[in-house]
């Protein structure tokens, strides 16, 4: 009821002041998403904010995804559909979808979630001077049942302009993002092996500020094919030596990308990169864990844990690949 009252007041205010609302683009990427796609499309069509364009890029699906999309586009002229002749992969497909958007404000959309009807309206009102705005989300299972867990239960949300907050972890989910078109000038090309939403959050804080809405505006579906393993279900099942070693290498690769693409990257990025690469070649490197610990105010800000858990997080970072091989 509060959302309804809020919208009525805001809508009347706009009419009284003759404010012209901007068109907002929704960038949706699909790939073999027939199972949940209709529910998602119904929820974005039902937004109270009506001045939208739906830019949908299908990544060469082999199921009924394209047929579902065309059926919706036939009755709603806001849809613009594109179909890749070959599979581009997750990051490249989102990069293409974002580039095809024509509006100054762009919302990112996953194919299997359910949006609150006020999502776009509330975000458009609150983005202000920030390059990016995001929100909280409630997790549901594959059948749409509430899992009684929100993303904010796992992470502290961040607002501000400090990119070092995103060097060790990420709290900004792609489906929750509303960004300004100017940000596209900085995020392309999206690094191939880095989560696109983590990259966007880092670049946004490097070039401006971000903010968040403390509201759950998406029902975020969890199933076996999620690109982001938020609850670490796959990590629990796949805990072999290759996974552990790849985690160390990926950490260094992420720091390398964060430091190499921008002249204004913080000195801490280069320091951590040098240490992480040396750590990977060593049995143990205490100085890497100490560097993380002494910069915990930013590096571990997102970690919704007590000091003891943060200490052991930093401690686990000291062990290199040779030690992992022995422990295996």
Summarize the structure in words.
The chain has 328 residues and is an alpha/beta fold. The protein has 2 domains: 2-221, Spore Coat Polysaccharide Biosynthesis Protein SpsA, Chain A (Alpha-Beta Complex); 238-327, no CATH class. It contains 15 helices and 9 strands. β1 (24-30), α2 and β2 form a beta-alpha-beta unit. The radius of gyration is 21 Å and the shape is globular. The N and C termini lie far apart (55 Å). Mean pLDDT is 92; it is low at 13-18.
Q: Main traits of this protein?
A:
328 residues, alpha/beta, 45% helix, globular
Q: How much helicity do the residues have?
A: 40-55%
What is the number of helices?
15
Radius of gyration: 21 Å
The CATH architecture classification of the largest domain is Alpha-Beta Complex
Strand content: 15-25%
- What does the overall shape look like? globular
Cα(first) to Cα(last) distance is 55 Å
CATH topology of the largest domain: Spore Coat Polysaccharide Biosynthesis Protein SpsA, Chain A
Low-confidence stretches: 13-18
The CATH homologous superfamily of the largest domain is called Spore Coat Polysaccharide Biosynthesis Protein SpsA, Chain A
Q: What structural class should be given to the helix and strand makeup?
A: alpha/beta
CATH class of the largest domain: Alpha Beta
Largest sheet: 9 strands, mixed
Whole-number count of domains: 2
What's the average pLDDT?
92
Overall strand count: 9
Order of helices and strands: HEHEHEHEEHEEHEHHEHHHHHHH
């Amino acid at each position: 009821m509060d959302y309804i009252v809020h919208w009525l007041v805001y809508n009347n205010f706009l009419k009284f002041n003759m404010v012209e609302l901007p068109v907002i683009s929704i960038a949706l990427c699909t790939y073999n998403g027939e199972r949940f796609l209709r529910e998602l499309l119904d929820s974005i069509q039902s937004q109270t904010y009506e001045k939208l364009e739906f830019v949908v890029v299908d990544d060469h699906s082999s199921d009924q995804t394209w047929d579902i999309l065309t059926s919706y586009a036939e009755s709603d002229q806001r849809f613009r559909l594109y179909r890749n002749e070959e599979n581009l992969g997750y990051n490249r497909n989102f990069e293409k979808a974002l580039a095809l958007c024509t509006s100054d404000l762009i919302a990112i959309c996953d194919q299997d979630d359910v949006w609150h009807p006020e999502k776009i309206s509330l975000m458009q009102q609150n983005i202000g001077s920030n390059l990016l705005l995001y929100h909280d989300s409630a997790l549901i299972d594959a059948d749409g049942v509430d899992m009684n867990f929100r993303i904010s239960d796992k992470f502290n949300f961040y607002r501000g302009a400090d990119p070092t907050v995103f060097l060790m972890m990420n709290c900004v989910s792609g489906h929750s993002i509303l960004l300004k078109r100017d940000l596209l000038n900085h995020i392309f090309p999206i690094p191939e092996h880095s989560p696109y939403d983590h990259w966007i959050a880092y670049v946004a804080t490097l070039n401006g500020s971000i903010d968040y809405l403390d509201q759950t505006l998406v029902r975020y579906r969890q199933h076996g094919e999620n690109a982001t393993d938020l609850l670490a279900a796959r990590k629990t099942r796949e805990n072999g030596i290759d996974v552990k070693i790849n985690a160390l290498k990926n950490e260094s690769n992420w720091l390398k990308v964060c430091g190499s693409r921008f002249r204004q990257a913080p000195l801490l990025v280069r320091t951590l990169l040098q240490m992480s690469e040396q750590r990977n070649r060593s049995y143990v490197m205490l100085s890497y864990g100490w560097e993380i610990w002494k910069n915990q105010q930013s590096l571990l800000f997102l970690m919704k844990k007590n000091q003891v858990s943060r200490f052991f997080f930093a401690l686990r970072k000291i062990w290199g690949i040779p030690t992992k091989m022995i422990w295996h």
